[in-house]
Design brief:
Largest interface: A-B, 32 and 29 residues
Low-confidence stretches of chain B: none
Number of strands of chain B: 0
Largest sheet of chain B: none
Structural class of chain A: alpha+beta
Strand content of chain A: 15-25%
Order of helices and strands of chain A: HHEEEHHEHHHHEEHHHEHEEHH
Number of domains of chain A: 2
Low-confidence stretches of chain A: 1-5, 273-297
Shape of chain B: elongated
Radius of gyration of chain B: 16 Å
Shape of chain A: globular
CATH architecture of the largest domain in chain A: Orthogonal Bundle
Number of helices of chain A: 14
Helix content of chain A: 40-55%
Largest sheet of chain A: 5 strands, antiparallel
Number of helices of chain B: 7
Radius of gyration of chain A: 19 Å
Structural class of chain B: mainly alpha
Mean pLDDT of chain A: 83
Oligomer: heterodimer
Order of helices and strands of chain B: HHHHHHH
Mean pLDDT of chain B: 84
Strand order of the largest sheet of chain A: 6-5-9-8-7
CATH topology of the largest domain in chain A: Arc Repressor Mutant, subunit A
Strand content of chain B: under 5%
Number of strands of chain A: 9
Helix content of chain B: 55-70%
């Protein structure tokens, strides 16, 4: 997903919240749907679909799978469908084949740009940047921070961890894995700006010798929601990452069969890239990044 | 390439003898948004479609080209029956719940 699209989703979610004068956590997507006259109902499980948006005439409905046991995931699914409802141009994608309903599999693993944009909208709606950052400032680092923020936002550990990495100014990486293969990974901007780091790719193997690799070898660890904490170094996870020590915290996500890894460190050593002038940086930025820059007035 | 939504929006607005500003005000949108929709520079969201169709008293299906009728046809029940015969059990469940939502919404209005 292009970062420009994240900007669109962020801006649209902010507009939805501002229009409803929502300024505290947690944000309730069911209440937002109800305010739009959109009913939310459970859908019989068995299809592998987490949620869907339906329309009949001028009436819209959101359905979410009754197999979702996590309140955070349920809310994320509804917020994702609201993304399809509020984001411009999604109707063309959703009802492209003459369907009256669109089935989604929210959860950051889709390669479809519309699904990813709806995921970004859901994250921005449930964890608005300003409120999330304010809450972040009052918590510790790593998995503990993710858990505290997830409680506050009533969001899943995975969605919260991703938002934590995306918005943080610290070097943080979140990796979601299954059977020791990377499902998805998110890095904080501080890391992404380091062009000497190779990014962790989807479907790549979890590096041997890491706590995550050892953890994933026993499926019971994942199923029983066990957790481990260990120290690791950047070059184990990223080629050319140097031997900077990072903390690696790992937790099993139970029935979903997934493992969440949070990597964080205090700071990164300077790289040659950082010698680039501020002006050059600006020129290389996408509009979405410029939008995030502090105002100069 | 012609944009069916842009064409239908202009047609519906003109048939209601509304200016772009009139429509924007009624739909709670900026006049520039209506202009952009009619020239195809911007695509609407479902939320925009709903606001526009409510203001114009047409269906969203008409605006996006899924139906040629501006209003819901009187022979809806026959159409529903015809479609229902081809639906999966899961789709029927969804549509039944949608019908319940719509009926409840109508009851509240009354």
């Amino acid at each position: 997903m292009a970062r420009r699209d994240f900007w669109r989703a962020e801006a649209q979610a902010a507009e939805v919240l501002a229009g409803r004068k929502i300024s505290t956590l947690p944000v309730d997507p069911f209440a937002i749907a109800a305010g739009e006259g959109i009913g939310c109902e459970k859908l019989k499980s068995g299809t592998g679909v987490s949620g869907c948006l339906s329309s009949a005439g001028n009436t819209f409905g959101i359905f979410y799978s009754d197999s979702i046991t996590s309140e955070g995931f349920r809310r994320f699914t509804v917020a994702h469908e609201l993304g399809h409802y509020f984001l411009e141009g999604h109707y063309k994608h959703i009802f492209a084949d003459g369907n009256s309903r669109h089935e989604s599999d929210s959860g950051f693993s889709s390669d479809d740009p519309y699904e990813r944009e709806a995921d970004a909208f859901a994250a921005a709606l449930l964890m608005p940047e300003e409120l999330f950052n304010a809450a972040c400032a009052r918590v510790q680092q790593g998995l503990k921070a993710v858990e505290t923020l997830a409680d506050k936002c009533v969001t899943s550990l995975t969605a919260t961890a991703i938002r934590y990495a995306v918005l943080s100014e610290d070097p943080i990486t979140v990796v979601c894995s299954k059977d020791n293969r990377v499902q998805f990974a998110f890095m904080s901007d501080t890391l992404k700006q380091r062009r000497d780091l190779t990014w962790i790719k989807k479907n790549s193997g979890i590096p041997e010798g890491t706590a995550t690799f050892r953890f994933n070898r026993d499926p019971k660890n994942v199923a029983q929601g066990k957790r481990v904490s260990s120290s690791s170094s950047m070059d184990v996870w990223f080629d050319c990452g140097g031997n900077l020590q990072v903390i690696e915290e790992v937790v099993g996500l139970g029935n979903y069969g997934l493992t969440l890894t949070v990597l964080y460190g205090e700071s990164l050593p300077d790289s040659e890239e950082e010698e680039e002038s501020e002006e050059e940086n600006r020129e290389n930025m996408l509009p979405s990044d410029r939008w995030r820059l502090p105002r100069e007035d | 390439m012609s944009d069916i939504f842009a064409d239908r929006l202009r047609t519906a607005r003109e048939s209601r003898k509304m200016s772009q500003s009139d429509l924007a005000e009624k739909a709670g949108l900026l006049p520039s948004a209506v202009s952009h929709f009619e020239t195809g520079r911007r695509s609407p969201s479902f939320a925009n479609l709903k606001a526009l169709s409510d203001a114009l008293k047409v269906t969203t299906d008409y605006l996006i080209g899924r139906s040629d009728d501006m209003k819901v046809s009187n022979s809806v029940s026959l159409k529903l029956l015809r479609h229902a015969q081809k639906m999966s059990e899961e789709d029927l469940d969804t549509i039944t719940r949608m019908a319940e939502m719509m009926a409840n919404k109508q009851t509240k209005k009354e």
